[in-house]
Amino acid sequence: xxxxxxxxxxxxxxxxxxxxxxxxxxxxxxxxxxxxxxxxxxxxxxxxxxxxxxxxxxxxxxxxxxxxxxxxxxxxxxxxxxxxxxxxxxxxxxxxxxxxxxxxxxxxxxxxxxxxxxxxxxxxxxxxxxxxxxxxxxxxxxxxxxxxxxxxxxxxxxxxxxxxxxxxxxxxxxxxxxxxxxxxxxxxxxxxxxxxxxxxxxxxxxxxxxxxxxxxxxxxxxxxxxxxxxxxxxxxxxxxxxxxxxxxxxxxxxxxxxxxxxxxxxxxxxxxxxxxxxxx
Length: 280
Ligand SMILES: C[S@@+](CC[C@H](N)C(=O)[O-])C[C@H]1O[C@@H](n2cnc3c(N)ncnc32)[C@H](O)[C@@H]1O
Hints:
The chain is globular, with a radius of gyration of 18 Å. The protein has helices at about 20-35, 50-60, 80-90, 110-120, 155-170, 185-190, 190-205, 210-215, 220-235, 240-245, and strands at about 65-70, 100, 120-125, 145-150, 175-180, 255-265, 270-280. The chain folds into 2 domains: about 15-40 and about 185-235, no CATH class; about 45-180 and about 235-280, Rossmann fold, CATH 3.40.50.150. It has about 280 residues and is of the alpha/beta class. The longest helix has 16 residues, at about 20-35. The chain starts with about 20 loop residues before the first helix and ends with a strand. Helix 4 (about 110-120) links the parallel strand 2 and strand 3 (about 120-125). The relative contact order is 0.17. Keywords: Membrane, Transmembrane, Transmembrane helix. This is Methyltransferase domain-containing protein. InterPro entries: SAM-dependent_MTases_sf (IPR029063).
């Protein structure tokens, strides 16, 4: 549903600030990871994470030759589900597993360790990695797919163009996933994450006095997620704006193909938007 649109503004999110306390940043990361997994029987078409799996299956047909680099991984986002769902299918087809590597400027190591212990095909880099200076991580015989899960809007045009240039020059494919859009309807829906935060705190942080205090007594955490979600809406690029970033004089796009689309998850509130680039 696209109600009105206006120019993009590169505002700052609270979670991007150096002064944002680690517990709040990590709480925000986990709230988003759980949102990827939200599925309401009878209403949802899968979850955001399973719809992301569908995007992979539709666009990358040689998945087992890939290492997927989750560039701003947060608390894992959809990656645990991507790994289990995609590798389940590859196993049935008798093909080798796709590997995933988690990185972030603010590594959520405790959560990544937990995921990686359960899922051997998920590893992580413990040190901070800035999305604006990503090294290639895939082994020489592997292809690399870089995924940007609900983070690409964090970067201004110059940084975002540099991130895509690096993906084109050093990787073999990339996928940008967004769940926000710069329109009135999505802005109006943004307060929903305020209430989602209450649910995540009660289920995942029920034994943490700090999280309970700053969710239910002084609602710092829900307000932060709401503000950041609203700002994310204002920063998210349209499809045209995303692909315009590739208009760079010295960027060779020969052999690259680009696709964009969207998948409804919980109509009319949650939609997954994606932009895919693949080198043939
Ligand atoms: C909105 S969260 C998304 C987290 C996760 N991808 C998900 O889908 O749940 C944005 C993430 O980007 C990370 N981030 C922000 N700036 C970054 C940068 N310059 N380089 C790498 N990660 C960055 C933050 O630490 C945060 O984990």
